[in-house]
């Protein structure tokens, strides 16, 4: 099979282990859909409300009532009218991929509707939506152990995918869904974005043959499109950072090119506020330049399990002053000699809106502010 089309990695699957089959290797992709996705009669589906827009059409919340089963909430992705045969194929490829997976931390495919219009992909419903926006809405509301539990779930899902020889290529908090019990599940198995180049999403930077989410992608995958489970591990490290920072944007407002240059010069993201040192160290391990020295997902799951069993190991908070093995991209302690007043400094760091809070708190001079930052 030609490199670059599918999500193959050099496998270490044991015999008897199910291995992922790329739907694009089928002469007739409809055959892959028939093989891996159950056809659902549209009369069993009730569409309720729009919850988002997908790449191919609207995404709805609805209900599914299969004969002899209780009614469940589902998410329904639709293919908008006026599609080409290729778009239909690309749209349904996600179902052919998802339908091969069965794991509590991978979004579950209920089935597809292809015999009537609109064409639909039906999956389990995740009440809390995408992880990045969920964390931003609940900033500071979860304990470290809860956050580590979420990370453990994501790592378990990724371990399963790696064992099936599936490389995700777009692991990011926006592609993790969260249910009402805070269970996190890996989603977004769409292939289309690697195959066509006509979206304007700034998350993805164009490069030959598709778009790459630069901030989440390992350097070797950006440089020469070497996507493996080890490049997924790099992305997982970025997801860890997103989770521990409650959905902050990786590398803040740096441009994609600046991110690429910084990584090349061995800069790495600093620990988020109050992040345990052991977790930041695991992030740095995931961001090793040499992909062969990064941990595998199996090791990551084991490491997180140990932390959950021994919460005391999470007591030590990472500090930016510790000498890291790699320099950290540091929005660190500013050089106050450059400023004349607290006002002056606040506007330089784009925090003028906090001027009154600073003054009320008694930070009337730069001397006092400098003490606060170094304490």
From TrEMBL:
Residues noted as binding ATP in the record, renumbered to the chain: 77
Location(s) in or outside the cell: Membrane
Reactions it catalyzes: L-tyrosyl-[protein] + ATP = O-phospho-L-tyrosyl-[protein] + ADP + H(+)
Boundaries of every SAM domain copy: 337-375
GO biological process, one term: axon guidance
Pfam families associated with the record: EphA2_TM, PK_Tyr_Ser-Thr, SAM_2
Residue ranges constituting the Protein kinase domain according to the UniProt record: 45-308
EC number: 2.7.10.1
InterPro entries: Eph_TM, Ephrin_rcpt_TKs, Kinase-like_dom_sf, Prot_kinase_dom, Protein_kinase_ATP_BS, SAM, SAM/pointed_sf, Ser-Thr/Tyr_kinase_cat_dom
Keywords: ATP-binding, Kinase, Membrane, Nucleotide-binding, Receptor, Transferase, Transmembrane, Transmembrane helix, Tyrosine-protein kinase
Listed SUPFAM superfamilies: Protein kinase-like (PK-like) (SSF56112), SAM/Pointed domain (SSF47769)
Membrane-topology annotation of the record: Single-pass type I membrane protein
MF term (GO), any: transmembrane-ephrin receptor activity
Any single GO CC term annotated in Swiss-Prot or TrEMBL for this entry: plasma membrane
Main localization, broad class: membrane
Protein's recorded name: receptor protein-tyrosine kinase
